[in-house]
Structures are given as C-alpha cells and as structure tokens.
Design a protein that fits this description.
By secondary structure, the protein is an alpha+beta fold. Helices cover about 45% and strands about 20% of the residues.
C-alpha cells in the first residue's frame, strides 16, 4: 500500500470514529495532588502535556495547575485516562458534553477533595 492510500485510509477511519472523549486525571507525582477533567478529545490532552514538558511552559495546562507546574515542572505530571466515553453516531455535542460532565463529577467523588486541584 502506498503512502497516499494509507493516508486516505487513516483519514477515513478518523472520520468514522472521531476523537476519543473521556475523563482523565493529571497527577502531580511530587505533591500527590491531582486534577480531574474531561475532554471531547483525549488526544489533545496528551498533546498539551507533551508540549508543556518539551517547552517548559505551563500555559498549555489548566490554569489551576500553573503554580505547581512552575514549581515542580510539567514533567512532574502524569496523565491517567480514567474512562473513555462510548460516543454513538446519533449523539449531539451537547449530549456528549453532558455525559462527560456527569462522568467527571462521579470520578471527582472518588478522590479526597483536599488532594484535588
């Protein structure tokens, strides 16, 4: 298979499935605190963390993490995918966002509030 055909295949697969939506946690390995969030595209969260690690900048991260990221560095944060939302083709963006908000709230309840940003 040539490169162009492979690229077309990958693009078609992406369009069929769309990005992976879900709930994640960024854990500060130095302080033990964590940030629980949700995203329509978990890949973008991974990319933002990688960018912050490579550049040493903190602006790619959530503003609640900036102080600790400046103090300990972005490399002190680990990404954990807590749950991937099964997105059905008939779901609207609003339904996906509502489901993500519910899942995020359920996951937040599992952690000690004093250890969550």
């Amino acid at each position: 298979m040539d490169q162009k055909a492979r690229r077309r295949e990958l693009v078609a697969e992406y369009r069929r499935t769309g990005p992976e939506a879900g709930v994640y946690r960024l854990v500060n390995t130095k302080s033990g605190r964590s940030f629980v969030g949700s995203a329509l595209n978990l890949g973008s969260v991974r990319s933002k963390l990688e960018f912050a690690r490579k550049t040493g900048g903190v602006s790619a991260l959530d503003h609640k993490l900036w102080a600790d990221a400046r103090q300990h560095g972005a490399e002190s944060f680990d990404l954990e995918i807590l749950e991937v939302l099964e997105v059905r083709p008939e779901m609207t963006q609003e339904e996906i966002r509502a489901d993500l908000a519910t899942l995020e709230a359920l996951w937040r309840e599992r952690y000690d509030p004093s250890q969550v940003y």
